[in-house]
Each structure stands twice: as structure tokens, then as C-alpha cells.
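User: New here, any thoughts?
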Amino acid sequence: MPALRWMEDGSFSGVRGSVLRWVACVAAAGLVTAGGVRAEAYRLQPGDVISFDFLDDTELPVSLTIDGDGDAQFPLVGGVEVSGLTVVEALGKLRSEYKDRQILVDPKIALNITTYKPIFVLGEVKNPGSFPYHPGLTVDQAIGLAGGTLTAASNAADKIMTRARLRGEIDGAEVEIVHEAIYAARLAAQLRGAETIDLNDAPEIARPYLERASLKSVLEIEEKILKTDLITTKAQAEILTQSIAETESSLKILAELEAEQKDVVAMNERDLERVTNLRKRELTTETDLSRVKNTTSNEKSQLLEIYAEISRSKLQLGNLKLELSKLQADRQNDILLKLQEREAAIKKLESTRQSAEEQFYLLASIAADERKGDQISFAYEVRRPKNGVNTVINGAPFTELLPGDVVAVSIAGM
């Protein structure tokens, strides 16, 4: 049977149209409700998924999601704000859009809600999160979708297993906190260049766990990592330092060669000047002059080669110094980044441990109350967003919800 759809003229299309039109009349009279609000009075909101269709073509309907700004992207016209409108009002606005833009003369369109904005269930439930909404959904049903309350009646074996799991989570979190704390202390030692780990460098939040834990095996491993890192870093720095020293030594030798070669070039230039004067007086041959010119040219070429080698050596020296500086800076940055990660990990583990511990003691308290025959009651708070502001409603199990509602479940009196 085709889905029930609102037409642009406010009527219904589909099988048994006359019957549905009669239902629409009853709804208009306020006799048909959905989720505590008349169906035609429900106002669209961000997160709703709607189905849009041109009735006079063969194309299938398209599904559109209303975005955070309240717009939906409709065919041919693009974004149109429909949030806050009823389906009938949205149809009227769309009809005007198509006519005003001269896209359609007499638009035949249909619109219906396929998926409502989900509701959210938080607090003392087994599986908190978001869940699909359907008209008529109550607080009690929403809690059922979330797996029921944490303290819902269960057999003894379930309670034992739950407490064992929570105990395991607590112990596991504490072990991880100790490991992360010693890791952080080792990083601090690396940063200082120390050869031993000082537990006082561990994050303050983790120190109580270190005091009551066996640390020997973990410390031994971290000490080995520390020593290996120091040896590796020292070796890398020594290689670079030695290369810098060798390059500086080469530059000194090149400087001496430069001075000597300058003297040789100057001597050859004087000799060339003397032979040139002799040649002018025809006291020497052209061959002698050519020989002196070649010698002088060769000596100048050697001087230029020395200049080039000095330039290359200076560039190499600069690169080596930069590499040594970068090695130290990169290592420091890497250690600081890892330290931040350790602190964040410890805070997260501490939060997990506290949550598990609270649940563990809550179960123990509930078990004690059950043995006393006490009855546990719950409080239900419904937070209903409206115009960007949450309206808080004190709910009951049979309170009907609306799309986007947030149900917070808590134990009464706690």
C-alpha cells in the first residue's frame, strides 16, 4: 500500500483516498493525535527526513534531510527553509517558490515525514544514546529502547557478572594509569637528559596509584628504553659534532691553501709583467711569454677551485649545524608531545575508572536496598528544545515524547 502523503492542497493521495480524506477531517477536528500533538500541527525541525514528490511525473520521490539551519534542498529550487512549518505550510511555501520562480505554473507536489529527528536517552540506562522516534513514543518505551534502567531487576548471575566486569574495568584502568605515569616520568627524564627515572616527575593525578602498585618490572623496562634512547641520541649528536669539527678543520686548511695560492698567483703575475716587458724590448721569445701566461692562468684557476671548495665546505658546515640543532629540537618537541598525550590518557583512564567505580558501588548499594526490601524509584527529566532553548519537563513513564526530546533518567533522591 503506498505511503500516506500530504498533497499541496492539504488533501491525501493513495489508496482509499476518500477514507483518508475523512480521517483528515477528523484530525482537523482534533480527534487524531500523534505523540501528543495533532499530526497536521507538527512543525518540522532540523534532523527530520522528509519525502518530496512531483505528482505529475514518473520520477520516484526523493528523501531530504532538514539541516541545522532549517533548510532542505528541493529539486529545481535548492535550499528552502521549512523548519518551524507544518507539512501543509511547507507545501504552500514550496508551491509559491515554484510559481514565483516561474519553474512550474501549477505545481502538483506531495510532502510527508519519513523519519523524525531522533530522541536521546541518558543517565541510568544500560545503553544510553539516540533512538528513532515514532509518534506516540513514551518515556517508558524510550527507556526500553535504551535497554532498560541499570538497576532493573536481573538475576543473581547477571549482577555477579556485571560487578565482576566493573571490577575488571577498575583494575585494568589502574594498571594502565600506572603504566602511563611511569612512561611520562621516563619522558621527563629524557627531556632532562637524566640516566634514571624519578617518579616525582609522574603526573600528580597518577601518584596515588604508583604508591600502591608493584613497579619493579615496569620500571626495569622503562629504564632500558631510557638508556637506549640516551645512547642513540648521544651517538647521533656525536656523529654530527665530529662531522662539524672535521668540516671546520677542512676550512682552516683551505684558508691556508688560499693564502699560499694567492702568493703564488701574485708571484706569477709579477713574472708575467716582467716577461711582457722583456718581450716588448724583444729580449725574450713569444714562447716564453705564452708559457708564463699559461702558468699564471693555471694558478688563478687553482685559486678559484679553492674558493669553490671553501664555499662548499661552509655550506656543508651550516647544514651539519642545522641538522644538529634540528635533532635536538625535534627530539624535545616529540617528547613534549608524548608527555601531553600521556597526561590526556591518564585523565581519560581516571574518568573511566571513576565511572566504573561509581557503577560498582551503586550496584552494591542497590543490592543492599533489595535485601532490605526497599523500593527503588526513578526520576525522568524531559529536555525539549524549543527556539534554541531547552524546556525542562518533569516526566512520568507514560509521558509522550516529541522528536528531538532528551530523556534523562536518574535514581530519585540521588
